[in-house]
Amino acid sequence: MADDNSTMLEKAVQILVPQPCFDKYFVDFNFFEGACAKIVISKCLGFGIILGSILVKLPQILKIVKAKSGQGISLSSIMFELIAISANYSYGFQKSFPFSAYGEGLFLAIQTGLIAALVIFYGGNLIGSIGFTLVYTLIMAYLMSPLVPMNILALFQSVNIFILCLSKLLQVVANYRNGSTGQLSAITVFLLFSGAITRIFTSIQETGDNLVIMTYVVSTLFNGLITAQVIYYWNSKKKTE
Asked: With contact defined as beta carbons under 8 Å apart, do 89 and 98 qualify?
C-alpha cells in the first residue's frame, strides 16, 4: 500500500517535474540545473494558465446574463476568436504537445462558445443560438478526430494568426465606435492579456513551434491594446461622473 502511494505521488510530481529532471532533483539532489529550472517553471506556468482558464471568462458570461444583453460585444470578433482558439487547441492536440502547452484552449473554447451563444440568444434568436452550438460541436468533433489531415490543421494554424488579428481588431473598432467597452469584463480582458504573455514563454519551452509562438505574440499585442482601451474608457467615465 505504501509503495502504491509512493508511486502515485511520484507520478503526480512528474506532471510538473518530468524526467530526466525528476531524477536530477530527487535522486541526484541537483537543484541548480538551469535547463530543468526552465522546464519546471514552464510546466507550473502552463498548468497555472489552464487552471485560470477554467473561470477566466466567467465574469464576462455573468455580466451578459445579468444585463440580459450582449451590447458592446462584437459577435464577429467572438466568432473569429473562437475559430482561433479552436485551431490552436486542435493543432496542439493532434501534434501531441504536452497538455500544459495548450490545455486552456479546451476551457476557453467552451466559454467563448457559450458567450457567442448568449449574444445570439439575447439578440432575439433562440434557434440561431441552438443551431450555432450544434454546428460548432460537430466541427470540433471532426477537428479532434483522426479523420482530419495534419496538413489541414497546420494550414488552419497558419491562418489562425490573421484570424486572431481580425477578431481583436473588430473588438477594438467596436469599442472605439461605441466610445466605451460596453459589456466587456475588465477582469476577463486583463486575465487574457497576462495569460497570452505567459504563453509566449511556455510555448518556447514546451513546443518550439514557431506558428504557436507567433500566435501568442500577436495575441499579446492585441489583448494589450484592448486592455489599454478598457483602462482609457474606465478613466474617461470616472472623469465625467
From this structure: no
Predicted model pTM: 0.74
Return the amino acid letter for 124: G
Query: Which ranges of the chain have pLDDT less than 70?
Result: 1-6, 235-241
Nearest to 216, CA basis, from 38, 39, 46: 46
Alpha-carbon gap, residue 129 to 62, rounded angstroms: 17
Cα–Cα distance measured from residue 204 to residue 4, given in angstroms and rounded to the nearest whole number: 35
The pLDDT assigned to 101 comes to: 83
Burial 107-123 (b: 16+ CB within 10 A, else e): bbbebbbbbbbbbbbbe
Where does 179-209 have alpha helices with state H? 186-206
User: What's the grid cell of residue 241?
Assistant: 461622473
Query: For helices 150-178 and 210-240, what crossing angle results, to 10°?
Result: 10
Task: Answer for the pair 72, 226: CB distance below 8 angstroms, yes or no.
Answer: no
Distance of CA 85 to the CA centre of its chain: 6
Please tell me the distance from the alpha carbon of residue 199 to that of residue 152, in angstroms, as a whole number.
24
pLDDT of 45: 85
Give the burial class of 25: count Cβ atoms within 10 A of its Cβ; 0-12 exposed, 13-18 middle, 19 or more buried: middle
Count of all residues that appear for the chain in the document: 241
Grid coordinates of 190:
486583463
